[in-house]
Amino acid sequence: MSDAKIEISGLRKSFGELEVLSGVDQRVEAGEVVCVIGPSGSGKSTFLRCVNLLEQPTSGRIVVDGVELTDPDADIDAARTRIGMVFQQFNLFSHLSVLRNLTVAQRKVLGRDKRRAEETARENLRRVGLADKENATPAQLSGGQQQRVGIARSLSMDPDVMLFDEPTSALDPELVGDVLDVMRGLADEGMTMLVVTHEMQFAREVADRVLFMDGGDIVEQGSPAEVIGDPQRERTRNFLARVL
Ligand code: ADP
Ligand code: MG
């Protein structure tokens, strides 16, 4: 077997009567960047949330870095620390400094001592271009800076995989570019990334593969040039005509 970082097979998720994911199969290789596009309500967030078991799949198998998360005996908490997740909302602790925001989980969840946690935090603040903001509180930062702090916080847990759910959707347009640049940098460093995004230009430039989701299925997938540049399915074409 090759070095798949994420293996998803037969993933189904229903909320009551509503089937939101109707049997998704995917392999994401180490270092691969996969962008997920599709209309609102198509199941993109649910798909991402199932990958780290924030949502319990109705059925199917999720394996991340060789650990089957859907195994009832799996240590989900341990496995989940290896999966970074960045949401549209930054969810920072507003009363804590940027540095403290980055050290809390390292100390609580990974048991790192203060010095080690702060070293790692500073290294990741440099990585997102915010080395000079460690003493600021979130309210003193722009939305784009807050999202970069959110990314640095995830990176401080040394994840194997990063999941992004519309990380720039809540930002003013002029702040989107800095966040995308940080994500581009991570992709260049070889991070394995699954990214739900409406930023088609980013998907075109950075994704190795694009998945188009509609109605709980992956309707079309391939390189950005294929899916965004030359879509074969009518549903994909209709969606792109609305967003491009
Ligand atoms: P997307 O991210 O593509 O907009 P979502 O995964 O958020 O789509 O939602 C897909 C469908 O699942 C929507 O119809 C949504 O209303 C429904 N849904 C999502 N989460 C829940 C939930 N916790 N309970 C019930 N329905 C949900
Ligand atoms: Mg969503």
UniProtKB/TrEMBL annotation:
PROSITE patterns: ABC_TRANSPORTER_1, ABC_TRANSPORTER_2. Residues 121-135 have a biased composition (Basic and acidic residues). InterPro entries: AAA+_ATPase, ABC_ATPase_HisP-typ, ABC_transporter-like_ATP-bd, ABC_transporter-like_CS, MetN_ABC_transporter-like, P-loop_NTPase. Residues 137-148 have a biased composition (Polar residues). It catalyses: a polar amino acid(out) + ATP + H2O = a polar amino acid(in) + ADP + phosphate + H(+). GO terms for cellular component: plasma membrane. It holds the Pfam family ABC_tran. GO terms for molecular function: ATP binding; ATP hydrolysis activity; ATPase-coupled polar amino acid-transporter activity. It is a peripheral membrane protein. Residues 6-240 form the ABC transporter domain. Keywords: Amino-acid transport, ATP-binding, Cell membrane, Membrane, Nucleotide-binding, Transport. Residues 121-148 are annotated as: Disordered. It is found in: Cell membrane. Its EC number is 7.4.2.1. Signal peptide: none annotated. Belongs to the ABC transporter superfamily. This is ABC-type polar-amino-acid transporter.
